[in-house]
Design brief:
The protein is an alpha/beta fold and about 325 residues long. The chain contains 13 helices and six strands. It has a six-stranded mixed β-sheet, sandwiched between helices. A hairpin with a 4-residue loop joins strand 5 and strand 6. Helix 7 crosses helix 8. The longest helix has 16 residues.
Length: about 325
């Protein structure tokens, strides 16, 4: 007997993808590898050249659709620095040769037709978290291009992923839970307890990521831990009573640290997903590519990689 139309199986329709790029990490990699190498006009241009090379390599493999390149504006501003002036204070300021290349990189991405976002109050990670939240609500799977552990917080949907295209790492929610032994929702709590040396956030003495993860697997989140620090003494960790006492004594510092490690995911005024479709490169590309310092050998592959994205919202791949 033939099945009725109502009982026929409904094929799975792949969700469209919103690609969010942590631009700074790829720029800094290029900077440390070849940042002062001269561009065709004799200016320091290695960071820009390295990013262009990367885009030509992995941009064509990205799922077509809306995309945003998110950047940081600086190390000495934003709400986290008001919370704690020591936040990232150990990092030296960017040299002028890098700042100048960042300006050209942002102009380049805009002229290629991509949405670029930066905000003096928030970091690129916050922009990505906010865009991911709105994109997921609109039915998109989230593809974050980065290697930053902080961005594991963003991989909340079963189809989301954190992908470093240059090093080949590709983490979905399950892989993050397996690697860190906690859920993405618990990452900020883990970083508050264990500390984050890269951001100059001290943790609790004797508590590393593994110990923090064990505490959170039993007690769920930092709020629960701070509501009853004595419960930590019953966790299966070394020196549990001493750790419990240290957490109780550092409650205010841990609450502040949690505000530093957590990502802001409700930034107002960001573009809607439909406004982030690449529009394609500006006219007279040969002229502005040359002026921005892109080597002629990269003009054709870069334009080919970016043109393929324009208007490709419905042409989705995994």
């Amino acid at each position: 007997m033939n099945a009725s139309p109502e009982s026929a199986p409904v094929p799975d329709v792949p969700r469209p993808t919103l690609t969010l790029i942590d631009s700074s990490i790829f720029v800094f990699r290029a900077w440390f590898a070849r940042g002062l190498d001269p561009d065709p006009q004799g200016r320091p241009g290695g960071a820009l050249h390295g990013l262009v090379h990367s885009l030509c390599q992995w941009l064509p493999a990205c799922a077509p659709g809306p995309v945003a390149f998110c950047l940081d504006t600086g190390l000495r501003q934003g709400f986290r620095h008001r919370l704690d002036p020591a936040y990232k204070a150990h990092r030296p300021p960017a040299p002028p040769e890098l700042r100048e290349q960042f300006e050209r990189i942002r102009e380049l991405l805009g002229r290629l037709g991509f949405t670029t976002l930066a905000d003096p109050e928030y970091e690129a990670d916050d922009l990505i978290a906010s865009l991911a939240r709105s994109g997921r609500a609109a039915g998109y799977r989230i593809d974050v291009k980065s290697a930053d552990k902080d961005l594991t917080q963003v991989i909340l949907g079963d189809a989301d992923r954190l992908h470093d295209p240059e090093r080949g790492t590709d983490l979905d929610r399950r892989a993050i839970e397996k690697r860190f032994r906690i859920r993405p929702e618990q990452v900020a709590d883990m970083l508050a307890l264990a500390g984050d040396a890269s951001d100059n956030i001290p943790g609790i003495d004797g508590v590393g990521p593994k110990t923090a993860s064990r505490i959170l697997r039993r007690l769920r989140d930092l709020d629960t831990v701070l509501a009853d620090p004595a419960a930590v003494a019953r966790c299966n960790i070394r020196r549990a009573p001493a750790v419990a006492a240290a957490i109780a004594a550092a409650a205010d510092r841990l609450r502040r640290a949690r505000r530093l490690t957590g990502l802001a995911d409700r930034i107002p005024g960001l573009p809607a997903v439909g406004q982030m479709l690449p529009r394609g490169p500006d006219p007279d590309a040969a002229v502005w590519l040359r002026d921005l310092g892109v080597a002629p050998t990269y003009h054709a592959p870069l334009l080919a990689a970016t043109t393929a994205w324009a208007g490709a919202e419905t042409r989705q791949t995994a």
